[in-house]
Write the structure tokens for this entry.
Amino acid sequence: MELTGAEILIRCLQEEQVEYVFGYPGGAVLFIYDALFQQDKVKHVLVRHEQAAVHAADGYARSSDRVGVALVTSGPGVTNAVTGIATAYMDSTPMVVISGQVPTGAIGEDAFQEVDAVGITRPCVKHNFLVKDVKDIAPTIKKAFYLARSGRPGPVLVDIPKDVSNHKTTFEYPASVAIRSYHPVGKGDSGQIRHAAQMLLEAKRPMIYAGGGVVLSDASAQLADLVRLLDFPCTNTLMGLGGFPASDRHFVGMLGMHGTYEANMAMQHCDVLLAVGARFDDRVIGNVEHFAEVPRRIIHIDIDPSSIAKRVKVDLPIVGDVKLVLDELLDVLRGSRQIPSVSDMSAWWKQVDEWRAAGGRMCYRNSSEIIKPQFVIEKLHEITGGEAFITTDVGQHQMWAAQYYKFDQPRHWVTSGGLGTMGFGLPAAMGVQMVNPGATVACVTGEGSIQMNIQELSTCKQFHLPIKIIALNNGYLGMVRQWQEFFHGNRYSETYMDALPDFVKLAEAYGHVGMRIEKPADVEAALKEAFARKDDLVFMDFRTDPTENVYPMVPGGKGLSQIILSEEL
Amino acid sequence: MRHIISLLMENEAGALSRVAGLFSARGYNIESLSVAPTEDPTLSRMTIVTSGSDAVIEQINKQLNKLVDVAALIDLSEGEHLERELMLVKVRAEGDAREELKRMADTFRGRIIDTADHTYTIELTGSCAELDSLLEKIGRELILETVRTGASGIGRGDRILKL
Ligand SMILES: Cc1cc2nc3c(=O)[nH]c(=O)nc-3n(C[C@H](O)[C@H](O)[C@H](O)COP(=O)(O)OP(=O)(O)OC[C@H]3O[C@@H](n4cnc5c(N)ncnc54)[C@H](O)[C@@H]3O)c2cc1C
Ligand SMILES: Cc1ncc(C[n+]2csc(CCOP(=O)(O)OP(=O)(O)O)c2C)c(N)n1
Ligand SMILES: [Mg+2]
């Protein structure tokens, strides 16, 4: 029997076990929406803006082991989706975005709602396709899912002209897929791995620096085994949080611009550095020359060769999947009779602990007058037992969430690290809640960021998503204000937002519960009340100290040991 | 340092713009780029001449390899290779200059493929440097038009780039 392109597309999604598609209809995808309507296996979540559809698919993928799927129409549908696609690309989220296109005959004629979707998204997708023949739909969708989830994951866009979605052909979903020009690596080179084991065993001041690749590879268990076996200190990047349990004594906290003193000092002064699924981002190692001043040997495990030796010289590259490489490395280490030198290790730990003491851990001065944002996150951690899924927007609140919510499990921390997209938090939380029904999901946000996708409160109502929104409302675009305070002579150019809405009334207008919390003494009770409302979305407007800054801080362009610890210093 | 990179990629709409886009987006130099289908019409062979520090060249190779459409890649400058470029140059050829230009073309083993009352069109194949040096010999005043294909490269002997 022959099916239309649209029907074939939906059948493909069913074959891929897609449960939810996040999307928004329009002219070019009418046939696709019609096909969606006539079945009930693939469910559709109607968002209020295409950017949110993509962020929701992103949150869905990050908090599970699945590929996120978004569906948008041509022209403005695609351009609205671009921010979401670029966000997913920077953080390597597996995702398939399907976009409608004008009919093949109209392409290139500046047709109504025509944009060159493949051209516009080319620099921010892992790959993209324009499907010109209905026969190509099934093989292309098969390839798209394969590309999205294999190797270094990423978003893949499939652009389908309207006429193609209405042409007919027989449907057959390919059983397997092979792309002759694409061969993601799996296992690492055994010789290199043995070499790495030796280097680690001989280290005097070792450090393990683990990033988002550990989470993407689902290799937390292997990482924990490795760290405990070797008794080495371990740090996580912002993207890696939860990849190693924060409550483990080997954990020295996050590193980088807003990382702990001990993590940054250990990173700077180690003699052997094992980088695992992390890409030496500029927010992480600061000034490259300063980082290179202390000689150290670097072992770098990454599935993407282009992540290796991009910003720093690497002595021992291992291209492969973190999980497979760590499994093999663990075998080698367990089979070895050697162990790291006990005296070197105790001297190194003594040094690390001294840094820990000097950095004072993460500390802030609490107040009984005004709510400190850090205090809210500490209480949030306590009340949710550290078990919640946390999404964030971008700014100071994001850093405080990273610093004070101690993640013990992977895939519970969902934040836009690479692109730093304000407006990510709420729609991402929708995706997280859809794929983890019944779980506690909180979105930590700022009064600036939340307004970038506030319309999604309506989607949350329609789909009964009981997300808890923790708005740390400091009245400022705080992260930018902080830079203006530090580096631009306190000239707060356009970082104060006058005329903020009444968030409580706004939440109520959307059919949710709103709470305003103004006193430190009320924080705990309010959080308890909100989280007790299992079925409601609660918008919590915490009025926090507008002058609070994020510490520690390695100023942009500075080296890791040039870290500012607090106001007093 | 100057590098000449050769690659095989899917002969598909958009593949070329992925390569060109990569160079502009990441700020890599591109001196010339030449591309055409191979004996297998589903594959195109591309030659890129670029320059940069060792670290930049390493990234260029890795980033190109990462493109899903790129099937195989070789940095020809890392070993023995041949490099040829085709040039068509139209020159003003009047009076005494006609003889002189003909001699010049001969010395470079170029051919005059079109003669008109006032012009010659010379065809020359050679290394980029040889082409440059013919142009220099002729001189800017006489040159009316220059068309160059950009370099094509191939490994010597057993150095073969094939799927
Ligand atoms: C306001 C703000 C402040 C920030 N401050 C900090 C900060 O203080 N500290 C910090 O760390 N970050 C900070 N960031 C985030 C930063 O910008 C980067 O996003 C982040 O550091 C990158 O993390 P990562 O190195 O773990 O790489 P990711 O972006 O998570 O990349 C993952 C790496 O792992 C590889 N990989 C993927 N899958 C696999 C696999 N299966 N096997 C092997 N390898 C794999 C990929 O190829 C890639 O190289 C900040 C961001 C913002 C917005
Ligand atoms: C879409 C987008 N625009 C601009 C920025 C630059 N930016 C980074 S943080 C920030 C301030 C965010 O303010 P708010 O959401 O109130 O968070 P706060 O820092 O106050 O906690 C801005 C404007 C960005 N990251 N994303
Ligand atoms: Mg704010």
Q: What stands out?
A: Chain B has two domains: 2-79, 82-152.
